[in-house]
Design a protein that fits this description.
This protein has 185 residues and is of the alpha+beta class. It is 45% helix and 18% strand. It has a four-stranded antiparallel sheet. Helix 2 runs antiparallel to helix 4.
Length: 185
């Protein structure tokens, strides 16, 4: 039998340390990596939710601008309070459609506008409704007849309020949201 030099001299033998990782170290590394991936997944989910909320708010702004533009192009209809009311996707279509073959008065144009606006609300925002309330400034007479058709501006303000529902992150379900804009058509 051959003896090593250390064994022959009577010195204790030293073990060589193996290089590499132990099973415990690998399991700790996998655990840390898994926690990081879970955090990344939660961050991604939160980011998508926030992006959708921003999208719905942009849609609400777009829809409010749409009715404001319609009101600016039909100021006599605003003077007649034809835009005032609550409108949604269930708004009944107007009797005259105000197409090229049929001439419409300002109130009929406003009825077509709010019907189209209600449809737009239903298509772009979930469970939505819009309210328009125009109030003239006190002290100024409301024009009538021919003066109504020649009045260039509305002397007052209109409040456009849009409501819709968003899904919340909690178990509460749908959360009502509101966008309000005050304009002078």
């Amino acid at each position: 039998m051959l003896l090593s030099t250390a064994e022959r001299s009577g010195e204790p033998m030293q073990r060589n340390h193996a290089s590499g990782f132990s099973l415990l170290e690998v399991m700790v590394a996998v655990l840390i990596f898994s926690v990081g991936l879970i955090g990344l997944g939660l961050l991604l989910t939160s980011s998508i939710r926030a992006n959708h909320v921003g999208f719905l708010h942009s849609q609400a702004t777009f829809v409010a601008e749409s009715i404001a533009d319609r009101m600016r192009s039909n100021v006599p209809g605003v003077w007649l309070n034809a835009y005032n009311g609550v409108w949604d996707a269930a708004t009944a279509p107007p009797a005259p459609t105000c197409e090229a073959a049929v001439a419409c008065n300002p109130a009929q144009v406003a009825a077509r506008d709010v019907w189209a606006w209600g449809r737009m609300l239903g298509q772009l925002l979930p469970a939505s409704a819009g309210t328009v309330l125009c109030t003239p400034q006190a002290g100024r007479p409301i024009p009538a007849g021919v003066a109504l058709l020649s009045s260039p501006t509305y002397n007052g303000s209109c409040t456009i309020t849009i409501t819709w529902t968003e899904q919340s992150a909690s178990a509460a379900g749908a959360v009502p949201e509101t966008f309000t804009w005050v304009v002078t058509p």
